[in-house]
Write a structure and sequence with these properties.
binds 1,4-dihydronicotinamide adenine dinucleotide, 12 helices, 7-stranded parallel β-sheet, alpha/beta, 5-stranded parallel β-sheet, Rossmann fold, globular
Amino acid sequence: MKIIFYDAKKYDIESFTKANNSFDYELKFLEFKLTIESAELARGYDAVCVFVNDIVTKEIIDKLTSFGVKIIALRCAGYNNIDFQAAFEKIHVARVPSYSPYAVAEHAIALIMTLNRKTHKAYNRTKESNFNIGGLTGFDLYQKTVGVIGTGKIGQKFINIAKGFGMKVLAYDKFQTEGLNVTYTDLETLYKESDIISLHCPLLKDTEHIINGESIKKMKDGVMLINTSRGGLINAKDLINGLKTRKIGSAGLDVYEEEADYFFEDFSNDMVSDDILARLISFPNVLITSHQAFLTNEALKNIADTTLQNIKNFSLGLEDYNEICYKCNTSTNCPRREAKKCF
Ligand code: NAI
């Protein structure tokens, strides 16, 4: 198999090169994203490997299909960047459903801890020999209520950590997990009672802008909002309004709706022309990280191993290669897959 990688960073090259010792595929790494123009370079390859901000449109899918590319292998869990309706019955799409739910859950906690205890500010102050602690007051997490939207793999790890702090957990999920030791509730109650809200559901049609002006109105004054899932879950303009009116006390964001043009790149000698992102960065009570929640050694290893194994299983004609397709909409518990009706 010949595999071409788009948007490959140094850490991708290292982890995939190492994992490939067990597969011996021909790998080609490109630093830039997959676009209709750069898709041209996939001629002659069997598999195209992409990441979260490679937007795989119908036109790109048609082009890749015409070159004989057989599979698009996502080296991530989320798949909202793929028009998999267009991919259906043309090209196979695989993903890495789980590589380290701990990595993302722990990063969500890191955002909470930093925002709450303002360690980022304390770090800067003491670096300049400023030992004043004025303005650094936080609150005990103990006995506070955290609302978790989405109780899948990451949400569950997050809940376990939150319980370790002695927090009360309220959860909402469209499909509740049986046997999970958590209080499920409706969104209204979760919004009303949570001191912190953390998003762990995928970006789908019914979750797009789940956090908007209306839902923000229902939240507690001073609520902390954490999003390590996908930017499109939050209407960023409404978030800014919520921050300006002080309804939202603080926000920790690892993702942003229009992140594709900025995240993972260095703009320190340039300027950010996205006014919404620039405004968010300007708030002292907003902490933005650029989609790094997944970035641990363990996750990188699992991503590389699973992606190459997916491609291998696919090439061997095995069922189990974490396919997502339009009908399945998920790689797990799909009746079509169980009935082996995926094309
Ligand atoms: P998962 O599939 O295990 O869990 C997602 C949960 O969301 C499921 O329980 C599902 O029932 C629930 N859900 C679906 N529709 C919903 C709705 N309308 N309302 C409420 N809940 C709903 O996924 P996992 O592994 O926990 O990942 C969650 C998300 O985290 C991914 O979709 C991805 O977008 C994001 N992610 C972010 C990373 C980062 O580096 N920032 C890395 C990995 C994943």
